């Protein structure tokens, strides 16, 4: 079998969608492809072919993503799949390798990011688990806040139709995004097609998309997007459910008020949250934090496509002057020794002896500032040649707050 990989043409869009649908055992209505077409860029969609048959797909979104110190261009890798008939035949490797080489050659982004459908797939292509996320299951009758919870009498809470409140939602999101590594800018098309749609498929058996907005005389300061489902038990006791999809706020008082609006919803006994940051302030507001019933899982995966440019593009929390020996089997231009000087935010090739040897996926995992390097060293993935070099690099790359992407792309 000879596999070729190339960008698709406009006429091949339906076939691209069909491959993606089959690869993910799709249950969504095929008309959702019209929504994807609004945000996916045709010239960034790759397909793998076995002869004339399309057997695999991969895409990239042009994002601006916050990293420590500010925003940079990032390629958001998405729609990666292979037909079941062609699994374990090198198709995925061919797609991912071509995509990495294309990203390197076009020079638009030094960093790529993705959400993994299976956590074991992308490490072999140099992606590192750079951010984690929590989901919560909060029983509303045990959701009291501490007495020190912030409040602002100037704030009021109102309900809104999400699609009609886009300006308010965007205002809050854009205020929050610059401060949190991993969050990415959303185009108007992304808001319309990924955040506020409300078809029966989007509802997934729940109720319509709902919105709460915390605002004062200057405008919106916080919001929540959620769905609710009414239910009663055999004793006619209400046991409705709330599924929180997004909650953002630009200040602590607005954050607390929006959470209270979600937790205090009448006739609902439990709130299930989607992805929340691992340092979510709700952990400090809830009087009984065990009632969060938190589950921890992976969020963003980061790939340094161009190590020199990527490490020079972010800020650092502490001074460091180190020579790193980078191991990178997929991107040979990254392999070798680099001198990283954090005070200058410079990373350049060098012939000096290495202080540390580490694979590119470990460096990608640390890139957003949420992954200390000591555990990777304890797992045998990092070799320290100069005592203290590991702590020096780990302290320099650390960042507060923790990274988080919020919504899967």
From TrEMBL:
<feature type="binding site">
    <location>
        <begin position="80"/>
        <end position="82"/>
    </location>
    <ligand>
        <name>acetyl-CoA</name>
    </ligand>
</feature>
<dbReference type="Pfam" id="PF13527">
    <property type="entry name" value="Acetyltransf_9"/>
</dbReference>
<dbReference type="GO" id="GO:0034069">
    <property type="term" value="F:aminoglycoside N-acetyltransferase activity"/>
</dbReference>
<protein>
    <submittedName>
        <fullName>Predicted acetyltransferase</fullName>
    </submittedName>
</protein>
<feature type="active site" description="Proton acceptor; via carboxylate">
    <location>
        <position position="409"/>
    </location>
</feature>
<feature type="active site" description="Proton donor">
    <location>
        <position position="122"/>
    </location>
</feature>
<dbReference type="InterPro" id="IPR025559">
    <property type="entry name" value="Eis_dom"/>
</dbReference>
<feature type="binding site">
    <location>
        <begin position="88"/>
        <end position="93"/>
    </location>
    <ligand>
        <name>acetyl-CoA</name>
    </ligand>
</feature>
<dbReference type="InterPro" id="IPR051554">
    <property type="entry name" value="Acetyltransferase_Eis"/>
</dbReference>
<feature type="domain" description="N-acetyltransferase">
    <location>
        <begin position="3"/>
        <end position="152"/>
    </location>
</feature>
<dbReference type="InterPro" id="IPR000182">
    <property type="entry name" value="GNAT_dom"/>
</dbReference>
<dbReference type="Pfam" id="PF17668">
    <property type="entry name" value="Acetyltransf_17"/>
</dbReference>
<feature type="binding site">
    <location>
        <begin position="117"/>
        <end position="118"/>
    </location>
    <ligand>
        <name>acetyl-CoA</name>
    </ligand>
</feature>
<dbReference type="GO" id="GO:0030649">
    <property type="term" value="P:aminoglycoside antibiotic catabolic process"/>
</dbReference>
<dbReference type="Pfam" id="PF13530">
    <property type="entry name" value="SCP2_2"/>
</dbReference>
<keyword id="KW-0808">Transferase</keyword>
<comment type="subunit">
    <text>Homohexamer; trimer of dimers.</text>
</comment>
<comment type="similarity">
    <text>Belongs to the acetyltransferase Eis family.</text>
</comment>
<dbReference type="InterPro" id="IPR022902">
    <property type="entry name" value="NAcTrfase_Eis"/>
</dbReference>
<dbReference type="InterPro" id="IPR036527">
    <property type="entry name" value="SCP2_sterol-bd_dom_sf"/>
</dbReference>
<keyword id="KW-0012">Acyltransferase</keyword>
<dbReference type="InterPro" id="IPR016181">
    <property type="entry name" value="Acyl_CoA_acyltransferase"/>
</dbReference>
<dbReference type="InterPro" id="IPR041380">
    <property type="entry name" value="Acetyltransf_17"/>
</dbReference>
């Amino acid at each position: 079998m000879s596999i070729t990989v190339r960008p698709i043409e406009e006429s091949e869009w339906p076939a691209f969608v069909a491959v993606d649908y089959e690869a993910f055992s799709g249950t969504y209505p095929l008309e959702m492809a019209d929504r994807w077409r609004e945000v996916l860029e045709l010239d960034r969609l790759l397909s793998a072919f076995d002869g004339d048959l399309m057997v695999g797909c991969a895409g990239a979104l042009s994002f601006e993503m916050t990293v420590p110190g500010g925003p940079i261009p990032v390629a958001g890798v998405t729609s990666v799949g292979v037909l079941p008939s062609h699994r374990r035949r090198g198709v995925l490797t061919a797609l991912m390798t071509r995509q990495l080489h294309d990203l390197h050659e076009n020079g638009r982004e030094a960093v790529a990011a993705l959400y993994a459908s299976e956590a074991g797939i992308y490490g072999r292509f140099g992606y590192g688990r750079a951010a984690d996320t929590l989901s919560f299951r909060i029983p509303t009758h045990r959701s009291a806040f501490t007495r020190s919870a912030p409040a602002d009498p100037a704030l009021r809470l109102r309900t809104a139709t999400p699609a009609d409140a886009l300006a308010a939602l965007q205002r809050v999101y854009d205020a929050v995004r610059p401060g949190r590594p991993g969050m990415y800018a959303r185009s108007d098309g992304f808001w319309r097609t990924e955040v506020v749609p409300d078809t029966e498929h989007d509802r997934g058996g729940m109720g319509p998309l709902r919105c709460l907005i915390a605002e004062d005389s200057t405008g919106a300061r916080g919001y929540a997007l959620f769905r609710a489902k009414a239910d009663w038990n055999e004793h006619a006791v209400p046991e409705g459910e709330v599924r929180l999809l997004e909650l953002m706020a630009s200040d602590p008082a607005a954050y607390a008020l929006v959470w209270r609006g979600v937790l205090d919803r009448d006739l609902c006994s439990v709130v299930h949250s989607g992805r929340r940051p691992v340092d979510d302030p709700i952990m400090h507001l809830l009087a009984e934090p065990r009632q969060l019933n938190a589950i921890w899982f992976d969020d963003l995966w980061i790939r340094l496509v161009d190590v020199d440019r990527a490490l020079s593009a972010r800020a650092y929390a502490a001074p460091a002057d180190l020579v790193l020996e980078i191991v990178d089997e997929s991107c040979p231009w990254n392999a070798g020794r680099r001198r990283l000087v954090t005070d200058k935010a410079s990373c350049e090739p060098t012939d000096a002896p290495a202080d540390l040897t580490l694979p590119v996926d470990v460096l990608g995992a640390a890139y957003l500032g949420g992954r200390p390097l000591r555990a990777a060293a304890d797992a045998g993935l990092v070799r320290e040649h100069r005592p203290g070099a590991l702590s020096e690099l780990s302290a320099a790359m650390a960042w507060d707050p923790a990274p988080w992407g919020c919504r899967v792309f």
